[in-house]
């Protein structure tokens, strides 16, 4: 089907048809992409031709507005022919994305290329012993949270049953909370979706509370004198 420009009736009808037909590659179609919280990540389209007419970036729940350049407002913008950059990453950015690229082939016919991505967000935090640890990791796609703080992986939260320990809470803002952090809570925390894919990884390191350290040193000095 030969089409005119992007605003022609023929192009619009063909675009509407293509949007209703989602064909993904066989096997595991997702390209794994990882970025650090507050950093940026690039979803590469791997399309070298310059005859691109339009691109769409889609999550499981919405179509995301993609700015044409980094200068325009928003955290998501196009770079090069059709690469998409997401900057100032937050945990809720983690999940599956579909990039649809509409382009004209050598016969000036409109075609579509589909690339799908699994975006993983990681972060590192330090917590003092005895303080509250609040992690905003219970995003909408989260199904369970696991940690290896005890030396082996175990579930500490699930979507169906909530927290698995009296020392923890969750709230309506998507926070997983450890009420009073212990050295044994240090480790890696993974947030998984319903398919077992890792959405978020948080590495938690413990810090000695300076007040507790002074008390320990003081008691040791008294014991030495005695």
UniProtKB/TrEMBL annotation:
Organism expressing this protein natively: Carassius auratus (Goldfish)
Protein name, UniProt field: Uncharacterized protein LOC113061955
